[in-house]
Amino acid sequence: MNPKELAQHVITSLRKGMPPRWGYQLFTVGHEKLIKGFKKHHMSQIANQGLILFINGSNGSGKTHLFRLLTEIAMEGNCLVSNVQLHARETPFSKFEKVFSAIVRNIQTPSMYEDVASPEAEPFARVLDEALFLQVTGAKEAVNEITNEQYHTVYQALMEDRRIDFDFRKIVAKYWETYVPNRPISHPTVREEVRGEALQWFSGEGTQQTFRTRFDVNKMITGETARPMLQSLAGFVGLAGYRGLMILFDEAAQAYQFMQPTERVHAYNNLFQLVNEIEKLPGLFLVYAATPDFYTNTKYGIVINSGLATRIGKLRDNKAPRAMDPVWNLDAKTYIGLDDYKQAAANIREVYKQAYEDEEDDLESRLPSQEKIGAYVEDLAKQHGDTAIPRFWRVLMRSLIPYFEDCLEGEIRSAEEVYEDVMDLLSREE
């Protein structure tokens, strides 16, 4: 998107009450120093060493907002991103093969993330394709077929890449072979069947006999192989031209409380091993977000695994998070205040100008001044209170575009009137 299109995307999304896919850095506040340090200390190193970051935050503290911001930054930094919701049943850390499957299913490239109107049923197929196209042509644009010579060249290069598990390489090679014409595997019916089975292998589906016969592999994605395969996945994304893979783990509230004790122990052991191994996994960046119980509960929090608790470290209770902290505590009392909200409103005013300045006459003079915006935010905050639900950030984001457009139409409503309308809308959306 060009700057004008990006600004219009942000405003259109906020007008609908939806978070924008792109453009968070245009208006977000309270994160400036944190994000600057994140880019400097974390994003700059992702291709050279593996990294892991933990986030603490109560429900409504802004974890989802921060995930969207980190996603945008990772995409801009030419990384793949996978966002995985951790549940006690569907994706427990005690069964890491299910977590690996979710990582593959939810993986996104920057172009896929931008093209929200056309979601892909098998997003990892795009990564497999792009890796082939890049090796063959030097670009990621799609080709319909490749020659025998081209296949032989990319096959040899793939098989010599020791970062990637041997069976992982075999599956990829067979998938790529479907692009070579005049082979039995490239017949349209067989081709689609083989590609589908290859994607099933990455998702831990199918039978070992099928894959041994069709792909000549011995391993499946299991609890024992899933973590090593994650290392292979991190190595493979480099073949597709990406600097790395960022995985955002969002733990469902109280997920570990609902596990059986043995499952919980196994889950924490898996996490502990990942924490210990991560620096040896270049190209992989894990972000693990959880509620406070995960860190502090004496019955089912990480304190039951002393090694893991020591490696992660303690929460900094009353200090805003810094980039190099092992845990970013979004519940820190000093994290965001009224001045930050005023700045966010001022930022969105600038985004609005950028979106429509050449379409609206005298837009600058018709929009409210910085002083009026500040007063409006103060009045809106008084209406909401410090502990009301939903969080004030959501109320503010929903109210600003109606406020600006009222001003453009010469209709001046009080913050109280806007607040009542917004709260009514939000209550109907719940």
TrEMBL record:
Keywords: Plasmid. SUPFAM superfamilies: P-loop containing nucleoside triphosphate hydrolases (SSF52540). It comes from the Bacteria. InterPro entries: BrxD, P-loop_NTPase. This is Fused ATPase/permease component of siderophore export ABC transporter. It comes from Desulfomonile tiedjei (strain ATCC 49306 / DSM 6799 / DCB-1).
